[in-house]
Design a protein that fits this description.
The chain contains 8 helices and 11 strands. It is of the alpha/beta class and 242 residues long. The chain folds into 2 domains: 111 residues, D-Maltodextrin-Binding Protein, domain 2 (3-Layer(aba) Sandwich), CATH 3.40.190.10; 123 residues, D-Maltodextrin-Binding Protein, domain 2. Helix 4 links the parallel strand 5 and strand 6. Helix 7 crosses helix 8. The longest helix is centred in the first third of the chain and has 14 residues.
Length: 242
């Protein structure tokens, strides 16, 4: 496997369960690499990996002949430094901040930081960045070119933790007490709110195959999509598809 850094924590947990106590015990092994959703999609389309891990919906520009096998949903959280809780942002405010129209924290109601806003984003191969643009920027706007670009959720998290003036976005699984999540349209980015449908910053996780899955891939994906053991893993930090 290769692909999304957001899917990585979930898929490694699922793979571990599958080979230690599930039907894959003694039958199959996993090698999981990262690199971003687009990397995983390209790799699987070219036969470099068996499965590509994607944290965004399928797009018309994706290679032909691939199948997105949806396994879960994930919340994308807007994050700020722990010393700069800012309450809630409307979609218009998010658009203004991340497109670079709003450049100073003095223009953001409730912000405790001062000075310039430091945008932190993801690389072009990132499914999280694609999902963020689709959900929070209406799919038509682009994140400001001045944003710091990071190759993983973990690096975005570290950058925002280190700078009071920073703001970025990560998968919910990467949020901890060293960060503050920003309520979006008055709703907190929590697992409960995402599962209930109140929080709108949610995107799909998929295992992408070259054609319909067969053999060991088919067995694993079916187990992920239908077994109670897989659902228990997904329920910890993500949202099951059923």
């Amino acid at each position: 496997m290769s692909g999304s850094t957001s899917v990585y924590p979930l898929i490694t947990s699922l793979a571990r369960s599958y080979v230690t106590s599930g039907p894959g015990k003694g039958k199959v092994g996993f090698v999981v690499q990262q690199g971003g959703s687009d990397t995983g999609i390209t790799d699987v389309s070219r036969g470099r990996v068996t499965i590509g891990n994607a944290s965004r919906a399928q797009q018309p520009s994706d290679p032909g002949g691939i199948v997105f096998n949806k396994i879960a949903y994930d919340a994308v959280c807007i994050i700020t430094n722990a010393s700069n809780p800012i309450g809630t942002l409307s979609q218009a405010q998010v658009e203004s901040i991340f497109t670079g129209r709003t450049r100073s924290w003095s223009q953001v109601p409730g912000a405790r930081a001062t000075g310039s806003i430091e945008l932190v984003s993801r690389t072009a191969t990132s499914g999280t960045a694609d999902a963020f643009r689709e959900i929070f920027l209406g799919g038509q706007l682009s994140i400001a070119a001045s944003a710091q670009v990071k190759s993983s959720n973990g690096l975005v998290k570290q950058t925002v933790e280190a700078s009071k003036g920073a703001i970025g976005f990560v998968s919910l699984d990467f949020v901890d007490s060293d960060l503050r999540t920003v309520n979006y349209q008055g709703v907190g980015c929590t697992l409960r709110n995402a599962k209930s449908g109140q929080y709108k910053g949610v995107r799909p996780f998929s295992l992408v195959t070259r054609g319909k899955p067969t053999g060991a891939s088919k067995a694993f994906i079916k187990w992920v999509q239908t077994s109670s053991a897989a659902k228990a893993v997904i329920n910890q930090h993500w949202i099951p598809v059923r």
